[in-house]
Amino acid sequence: MTKYNVIFVLGGPGAGKGTQCEYIVRDFGYVHLSAGDLLREERQRPGSQFGEEIEGHIKNGTIVPVQITCSLLKRAMEKSGKDRFLIDGFPRNRDNLDGWNKEMSDVAKVIRVLFFNCSEQVCVERCLSRGKTSGRTDDNEESLKKRIKTYTESTMEIIEQFRKLNLVSEIHAEKSPEEVFEEVKKVLNELN
Description:
Blueprint: E1 4-11, H1 17-28, E2 31-34, H2 35-44, H3 51-60, H4 66-80, E3 84-88, H5 94-104, E4 108-117, H6 120-134, H7 141-164, E5 168-172, H8 177-191
Parallel strand pairs: 1-3, 1-4, 2-3, 4-5
């Protein structure tokens, strides 16, 4: 079996990961899998074995156990029938990365990490603005503080690890979405 090609899309809350993924899907044909969206959908699914546990983690701004996230990602990849994926918002910490390597290394290969770098202030402003219309329970100041702390303390370490493997493309994400996408296109054109 051919391995799935995966690009991890990382950056702080509000750095523009979802918006850039939409553009990449449109122009490059990748399948966008948001770990957060998959978890939120699973939480809402009637009879979900993981729903209650996921809900607790989302409310507390903590990280859902990696086995749950990997099983949801794997299921979505298999269902898609495609072989190129953007995985947005994952891995978030060392445990996520170790779990990914254990659960997914036989089915998926990480070909690049897109790191959307954005100041904390811009991230917070964007999330609070998005929270007015998104309906997301985690786009509020209290959850944001926890999410940013998790990102700073845990996710940056993962980005540094991939940087050592020469897999990180750092993109300055404070410009307009269109300007940011110009940078993204350069990276993806080099990959193809």
